[in-house]
Amino acid sequence: FWKGLGVLMLVYGLVMGVGALGGGSDPLQPLASYTAAAVPPENRAEALHFTTVKTPEALQTALAQARGRPVLVDYWASWCVECLRMDKVTFVDPQVVAALRKRRLIRVDVTQDDAASRALLKRYNLVGPPAFIAVAADGRTTAQQEGYLGPEAFMGWLHKS
């Protein structure tokens, strides 16, 4: 039994290595970069058009430009597994995409551990990404959420905000 398990682990490790060399980053689908067709743009989170900011000043400017329109501020980092999961699962859900089209979308990139990222997190007293801030058209913060939300939970949170 243990030898068989060891062989399976070795094979899985080799598959993971080959997938990583090909640019794969999903441990559940290590060979997706070799087998999956490209995802159409309408099914990607980029189709939502997030404005990415990396400094407190850029966030302040983006919020000022959005006055008169509701805003979703999305705290995100490239190393954040749950952020990537939000992009792959929640932000491609048709209901979520339709609901977010009514809002200005600002993505706060806190990938780097530097003074700017810490200041951005401190603005809303956040521990880290993923986190979401709903801002009303008049600039008031109406709701705040930290942690992953699936499509249904995200829609529930969005309707409450």
From TrEMBL:
The record's Gene Ontology biological-process terms are: cell redox homeostasis
Q: Which residues form the signal peptide?
A: none
Outline the extent of the Thioredoxin domain: 25-161
Among the GO molecular function terms of this UniProt record, one is: protein-disulfide reductase activity
**Pfam families tied to this protein:** Thioredoxin_7
Designated name of the protein: Thioredoxin fold domain-containing protein
